[in-house]
Amino acid sequence: MTQDSSTTPTYHTLSNRLRVVHRYCRSEAEYCGLCVMVGSRNEHPDHFGLAHFVEHTIFKGTERRRSWHIINRMESVGGELNAFTSEEATTIYSSFPAGNLPRAVELIADLVSRSRFPTPEIDREREVVLDEVASYLDSPSEAIFDDFNELLFAGSGLGHNILGTEKTIHTFSSDTCRSFLDRYYTPGNMVFFYMGPTPPQRVIAVAERYMGHFNHPDPELSRTIPPEVEPFDTLRTLGTHQAHTIVGARIPGMYADKNRAYSLLTNIIGGPCMNSLLNVALRERRGYVYSVDAYTSLFTDCGEFTIYFGCDPEHVKPCRRIISDTLSRMADSPMKERTLAAAKKQYVGQTIVAAENREQMALSTGRALLFNGHVAPQEEIVERIMSLSAENLRMAAEAFAPERCSILTFC
């Protein structure tokens, strides 16, 4: 166990190989949970949607509690219990008033180790998830991202919807869910994270008490890098009032040296601020779009850069031309130093503000330990951003030069 200061993460490994990370903060609230290295990418085609379905139904009953007792356990003290699934990870966590750590840790441990997945509850939740699938498909601005990934990552575990399909969801049973839980929710395949005012020694003791009995053998995770596909330009006619378009390309994964450059480029091109290049060009100057956003999604062995915009059908072509011109400029010539300095200053400021969101910081801490084995300090993140040169960004931008981009439009 090591601890350098009150803001430096403390690391510890329990007797059963479960890794623990502790981050101190002065707060009247606490946050803790488990990050599990399993997501939709680990599913067999016959079980697409199972990781998400287990995340839903893990709250439906254990050997000790019924679903009502699970819901009420943290809410009765003003806390929350939540979970979410991504392509490569699942997180179960709680936020609660300080002083309730044992309550939260014991509950999460009970869910992970003793969930029964009772059939009546499974059947009821199945309808909830099917409604979620239908609702998602009714929202083209969301559904287009999954359709784009199905094309970009065709033939791989990344090329399907996290929610699954009506056909696969109907096949899930109590045994299916329990087998999935036992296979992947193992001590060496999870990390426990904590953020709050409780001292690390106390957090470690509580984690050991309630989670030290986890003993399932760790799975052998095998992932195949998705094959490269030829750039595509696909139009799907859905009869929607508004057109929805994604322009995107493959980029290297989270362990690549260029990943910080991709994040900065994404922020410059279509980040959350109104002064992003595409928001200014497409919305502020021309009024073509209601929204335009750029995203970087980094997986363990690959990633993607995407731009989404929604507009009237007659504006799709001019929007595409402006986006193509913007990406060409980024890839062809280095950014001016003054412009780069301003972009880095803005991005650093955003990371500092984001670090004040303690719940998201706690979740990021767990994910960092799960995938990177450590949590990078804020100073290191800032240093990496500030060290980026104009040539670094230009070289990174070559990955999504227009000739390498694929395009999907719903209209």
Structure description:
The protein is of the alpha+beta class. The chain has 15 helices and 11 strands. The strands form 2 sheets. A 6-stranded mixed sheet has the order 1-2-6-3-5-4, sandwiched between helices. A 5-stranded mixed sheet has the order 7-11-8-10-9, with helices on both faces. β9 and β10 (303-311) form a beta hairpin. The longest helix is centred in the first third of the chain and has 19 residues, at 119-137. It is globular, with a radius of gyration of 22 Å. The chain starts with 9 loop residues before the first strand and ends with a strand. Residues 1-6 have low confidence and may be disordered.
The global form is: globular
Largest sheet: 6 strands, mixed
The portion of residues forming beta strands comes to 15-25%
Radius of gyration from the CA trace?
22 Å
Segments where pLDDT lies below 50 for 5+ residues? 1-6
In whole angstroms, the N-to-C terminal distance is 56 Å
Secondary-structure element series: EEEHHEEHHHHHEHEEHHEEHHHHHE
State the total count of DSSP E strands: 11
Keywords, separated by commas or semicolons:
411 residues, alpha+beta, 6-stranded mixed β-sheet, 5-stranded mixed β-sheet, 15 helices, 11 strands, disordered N terminus
Tell me briefly what this model is.
The chain is of the alpha+beta class. It is built from 15 helices and eleven strands.
